[in-house]
Each structure stands twice: as C-alpha cells, then as structure tokens.
Amino acid sequence: MARIIGSMSASHVPAVGNAIARGLQEDPYWKPFFDGFTPAQKWLAEVKPDVAVVFSNDHGLNFFLDKMPIFAIGAAPSYPSADEGWGIPVNDPWPGIPPLSWHIANHVVEEEFDPVICQQMLIDHAVCLPMACFFEDCGRNKGYRPVKIVPVGINTVQFPMPSLKRCFEFGRAIGRAIESYPEDLKVVLIGTGGLSHQLEGERAGHLNKKFDTYCMDCIAGDPSPLLGLSNVDLVEQAGTAGLEFMNWMTMRGALLGEVREVTRTYHIPISNTAAAVQVLEQLPRLAAAAE
Ligand SMILES: [Fe+2]
To answer: What is the DSSP string of 122-140?
Structure first.
C-alpha cells in the first residue's frame, strides 16, 4: 500500500527562480534562505520518496479570473513548466503518475468533494521552485526528476475561496485516498506558498511574524485552532497573498497520523514575503488505522 511519509512546506517566490538561474545561493541576501533547505534535503536523502503530492495555487496558467475552480487535481502523464517569471528559462517537465491521480480523484469525489480533474496541466513557480529547493539540483541539473508528482490546485486567489476548514477536510480525503492506493509507494506531501505577504494596496509589504509562527506551531502540533479562522481573518493577519496558507492546511489535512517536526526555518523578507520552510515526519502507522 502507498504510505505517506511526511510533509514539506515552503514559500514560493518568483525571485527565487531568478536567484537559482543566476547562481546566487551564496549571495549574502540569499544564503539564509537557501540554507534553510539543507535539513530538508538531508531528510529527503534518508526517506527517498517515490511520489510528491504538491498543494499549490495556479498563477494564471491553467485558470484565470474568468474560470476559477475551488479545487483541481492533475491527472496528466507530464506537467510542463510554462512561466517561471523574471523572463528566466522554464524548467523541464515533471513526470506525473496518472493511476494515482485518478485514484485520488475518484476517492475524493466519493467523499463528496468536486474537484476539476486536469488531464493536461501546466505548472509554474509555485510547484517548480519549492521542488528545486527541496530536491537539490532539480533547478540546475536538467532532467533530474527524482519523484513523480500529483499537483493539487487550490483557489487562493479570487473569492469565493474555500475556508481553511474546507481545505483541511479536502486534505483529509486526499490522505485517505493515498493510503488506500494498492501500490507500495512512499509519498511525500508538499504545501507551497505564504506565509504572510501582501503585494498590493495600502498594506503592501505587510508581514506578521507572530501570526506566521503561530501557524507553524499549529501545523507542527494541533492544527484544529486554525479551523475556525475565516478567510477575512487570514487576510487581516497574513495579508491578501497570505491566503496561500490554505495550501499548507490542505497538506496538513492529508497527514492522518501523529507527526514529528523535523526542521523549521523562517526568514524575513524574501522579496516582500515571509519565507518559511517546515518538514514534518508522519510517525509509522497502520493504513488500516486511517481515520
Ligand atoms: Fe503565489
């Protein structure tokens, strides 16, 4: 049976792609950010996942403001990168795993969620950059793709948006789907985006370290206090773009068992964004004990 081994979450900032493309990892501005991924890379080298289910939000490649699904699941054999921002070259595609994608899609629909199923899907910096940072060299070593991916899209962009509670419950259904997949696969969950940031309006530049720390504490421990937050609460605390924390909550929902925090870093600012990295290991458990 497939087994969820843990989760990795990180902010996604287009400027990071530019830093990778220009080889600025040792630059004083960037070094603290990239160093934050080193413990995660060591953990990955130990656990060696086969598949990554990646929770992120589309930035206009697949869905624009005229058509915006609440949830979307990729079911493509390959996911081309189409826009990394800054005019830098796009990354090579990431391979998909359609049988697992369809298993997840069928399972969550049976649990009464209604995602869009995408048999063609593009990926952008929200997927490519965290993957390049976690899986070292994926952003530089062309063609190096150590895992297959299942992208899961969440509307964090335009109202109406799902609540944190809805995201968490959707993640729960995805976690149950993964753990009922018959093939022996090690699956890591990846949540991208956030943490606090706002790019426009009177509060442009808004950051909130206290709230971000609270959110990371809840993700590492008991996420239930976050379930009562409305999206307006989230905007007030984390800024409009901080709504991307929904991706982290969906990811956290898919962790069905007890977790142990492997590493956490938090660095302000990277291009007006509170940049965080957090890795959780799901403690061994029997699939039959899934909630
Ligand atoms: Fe984003």
So the answer is: -EEHHHHHHHHHHSTTTTT
